[in-house]
Amino acid sequence: MNEVKDLMLNMLIIILPIFIYQTIWIDKISSPMVTARDRTAISIVATVAALCCMTLPVTPLPGFVFDLRLVPLLIGILYGGFRSSLFLIAAVYLYSWYLGGPGFPIMALTYPFVILAAYLISSRFKRWGRRQKLLSASLLTFFASLLVKTAVVVTAYLPQPDTPQLPIIAAFVILHVLSICISIFLIENMREKAALRFEIQQAEKLRIMGQLAASIAHEVRNPLTVVRGFLQLLQSDQIPAEKRHMFLKLGIDELDRSETIISNYLAFAKPQSSRLETIDVAERVEHAAAIISSYATLQNVEIKHQIAQGLYIAGDPEQLSQVLMNLVKNGIEAMPNGGTLHMNAYKRGQNVKIDIIDNGVGMSEAELERVGTPYFSTKQNGTGLGLMVTYQIIHSMQGTVQVKSVPGKGTQFMLTFPQNEKNALPD
Ligand code: ADP
Ligand code: MG
């Protein structure tokens, strides 16, 4: 009975870190690619799991010890790649040497082959689909555990030579394959969800951009018409020199203005990179207000912002833009007859607060409860994904959201983020 308990413990040691990894890091995974930071995290998690497995081994027979260290080791190499798993391998070897017993010589004998095979697979592993990953990892684990077990038998580290070896070998191999399958299944599932979320985020951004495009085109056309008028005037030779200068200056100013509108829009359209840096909140709020201003004007909404300078938070500036854009756009859409939208950013203790306040239609209690859940939308062409994405981004930046709303009076979204020192690298 005790062996089963030990075994369950070993499996738990392997699976638990995957869940911990999910809760801590998955929020920060904003792209389906495995980044360098992910690799380091995977390597650390795998190292902890492997060392714990070795500390709490299974003893099915007296004097006979085994553990599932092979599983986190292989996962670390397959997902982490060559460089980041060097630390993991070194740690496992060193710890095995420190623990003593037959474990180290067996490892020294067999693991180089296993590690080499894992490396060969790992370069292709990340490109494979879930089924190929499961299959290749199972096969690798099958042969690896068979090799290790055979080495144990051949080197005659047999505590009880008279017991039949075959069932023990079979159990050893099956347990390993089973553990790695469960682990890979969990990891793939969770990465797939992260990738899906990333896609929804991109799609929502594209949707906002599409809806803004018309108003931006409108806004850019006005200066063009003005410039065309000036050019037409300049065609005539009878214009005095100082008038000529004035027309040229006005024309250039108008062109500059449309250029700013377009480059603001394009900056927002930039593909997501998911950087982690210090964000200047004032700059972002002003930027969002600038992009949306043409849309607001078209809807008869005035945007007023009151922003304290020197507010810094940690995160991806592009993502904060996306958050602000969706909240401001929702606010504008809540005021079909026009109104005023306030954007305030200020410091409260160790936090930076951003409030977005509209005096639009507001929400009932029931609506307030559903806000931010996927597909909740009261708009004809709404997706109800904007706020879901918005909330996710805010949470991934360690922020929180509070909503107050009174039907017919208006709505207030209050964001709170931990303050970050300027130029201090966020951790
Ligand atoms: P969408 O804008 O596509 O409908 P969102 O997730 O952005 O999706 O918003 C979901 C719903 O929340 C909206 O349809 C609306 O009913 C409600 N909502 C969001 N912001 C406001 C607001 N400022 N005032 C009133 N209702 C709002
Ligand atoms: Mg919206």
TrEMBL record:
One function term, GO molecular function aspect: phosphorelay sensor kinase activity
Domain Histidine kinase: 215-421
Subcellular location: Cell membrane
Lipid bilayer topology: Multi-pass membrane protein
Pfam families, sorted: 5TM-5TMR_LYT (PF07694), HATPase_c (PF02518), HisKA (PF00512)
InterPro entries per UniProt: HATPase_C_sf, HATPase_dom, His_kinase_dom, HisK_dim/P_dom, HisK_dim/P_sf, Sig_transdc_His_kin-like_C, Sig_transdc_His_kinase_LytS_TM
Transmembrane segments: 7-26, 41-61, 73-98, 104-122, 134-158, 164-187
Main localization category: membrane
Any one of the GO CC terms: plasma membrane
Catalytic activity: ATP + protein L-histidine = ADP + protein N-phospho-L-histidine
Record keywords, A-Z: ATP-binding, Cell membrane, Kinase, Membrane, Nucleotide-binding, Phosphoprotein, Transferase, Transmembrane, Transmembrane helix, Two-component regulatory system
PANTHER family membership: C4-DICARBOXYLATE TRANSPORT SENSOR PROTEIN DCTB (PTHR43065:SF46), SENSOR HISTIDINE KINASE (PTHR43065)
Protein name: histidine kinase
Organism: Tumebacillus algifaecis
